[in-house]
Amino acid sequence: MNVGKENETLEFKKTTGELNEGIISMAAILNKHGGGELYFGVRNDGTPLGLDISDKTLRDVSQAVGNHLEPRVYPEINEVYIDGKSCIQVAFSGGKAPYLAFGRPYIRVADEDRQMSAAELEKFILQKNSGRDSWDSELSDKTIDDVDGEVLKEYLAKAREAGRIDFAYTDRETVLKKLDVTNGKAVTNAACAMFVGIPLVAVQMAVFATDKKLTFLDINRAQGSVASLIEIAVQYVKEKMNWRVVLDGSVQRKEIPDAPVEAIREAVTNSFCHRDFRNLSQNNEVALYSDRIEIYNPGRFPEGVTPEDYIAGRGPSIKRNPNLARLMYYSKDIESFGTGIQRIAEACEEADVKVEFRNGKLGFSVIFYRPVNHTNTTGGQLKGENDVSINGSLNVSLNEVEQTLLALIKDKPGITWDEAARSISKSRRTVQRYFNGLKDKNSIRRVGSKKDGYWEIIAPIGKKPRP
Asked: Strand, helix or coil at 267?
């Protein structure tokens, strides 16, 4: 009698001398299919050979599996007879992949066991966590009573308006049960993030004077629910980035931002949807530099795929937080799974804005490069020459100190030399020399007295001030 052929869920070993190899096969099969069978006393072609089996033999197999396969599984180990020959059958299953044999991960490919690389293991974990055993499906330490009822009402109204939920608000418990984010008392981490807010998770926002992370012009930090943090971060960028006016002869003037608002919103939303919430040592970040806007999340891009794959529309939907993504889909915060990068790229291409997707050692960034001819990071409504640039126009030939001083002046026109010196950690004499240089370049002028006056940014380098 032939037992059959080895395949992705069936493995044969001639003797228990191949016990270590058998355990490796178990790990590989568990990682690929969640369970299978292993026989000792059978040749590779399925022909039974038989073994001398005692109770100790079965115990040795059980102990070896328990000692060298992690997470632990509890297989059924029995002596069976095939064509009258005594063999060992090990039937096993498990739902806590990835499984390691002797500390290493393996995957089943046909009838072979292949060790996974570090990159393959990371991708495997992300894919396996999609919809099962993910952070956002775990119960939090928050209860239904901790859920903000008003936030939940607003969310449900938004989801109903989007046509993705068909039930009305009644009470918190009923709604949360219908959303499948509670066990009747505690709420899942996904619900906690959306409707409660996790105190240790926040968004850090800042404006820097130049293209380096040196001088802060503004810094802010917010905590709360994911929905509120998205709105706070998007509004911060809208207020702090530049908006230039295009005069095209139409009745209403057109105000063009440094980067498309819809792309900024998509990047911010994705930064929360795909962040690693298990890593609470880092926050989501929004940073505006003189030459770029960066949206960062502490969650690296999945290994084995690139942003270019998603831009081309061929990237798989790998959801780090599938339940959170589901809630955000209902409310139309995300349109569909796996299309965010493509939409960002398309919006930026249409607006002629350069965008970069950068995978760092600890997280992922979306970088929008700001147009050079009207770069300034302080926000506000300062008008440039001919009212063409709402925020002014800084010539790129200004050095870093000059750019910083102009930014400080724009933020506080009445700034003194002593205040400026403290802000950039230079002497009063050095700051005075830079101010005089900016005056000589027709970039600033003094309005009023030395005591009660203020500085005015009047024109870029090389242009004469308006009379």
From this structure: helix
Per-residue model confidence as pLDDT tens for the chain (467 residues): 567 789 999 999 999 999 999 999 999 999 988 899 999 999 998 999 999 999 999 999 999 999 999 999 989 999 998 888 999 999 998 878 889 999 999 999 988 999 998 778 877 776 665 544 478 888 988 999 999 888 899 999 999 998 999 999 999 999 999 999 999 999 999 999 899 866 657 899 999 988 888 778 888 989 888 888 999 999 999 999 998 876 656 666 678 999 999 999 999 999 998 888 877 667 899 999 999 999 999 888 876 678 888 888 776 667 778 889 899 989 988 876 667 898 999 999 999 999 999 988 788 999 999 987 544 434 433 333 333 333 334 443 567 788 788 888 887 888 998 888 887 878 888 889 889 888 888 889 898 887 788 998 875 433 334 44
CATH 1.10.10.10 residue spans of the chain: 395-467
Furthest-apart CA pair in the chain: how many Å? 109
Q: Indicate the fold that domain 10-116 takes in CATH.
A: 3.30.950
Residue with tokens 């089996």: 53
CA dist., res. 190 & res. 448, Å (int): 57
Residues 6+ apart with CB under 8 A from 108: 8, 9, 25, 28, 29, 31, 32, 33, 114
The pTM assigned to this predicted structure is 0.57
For domain 395-467, which architecture applies? Orthogonal Bundle (1.10)
Top-level CATH class of 202-318+330-373?
alpha beta
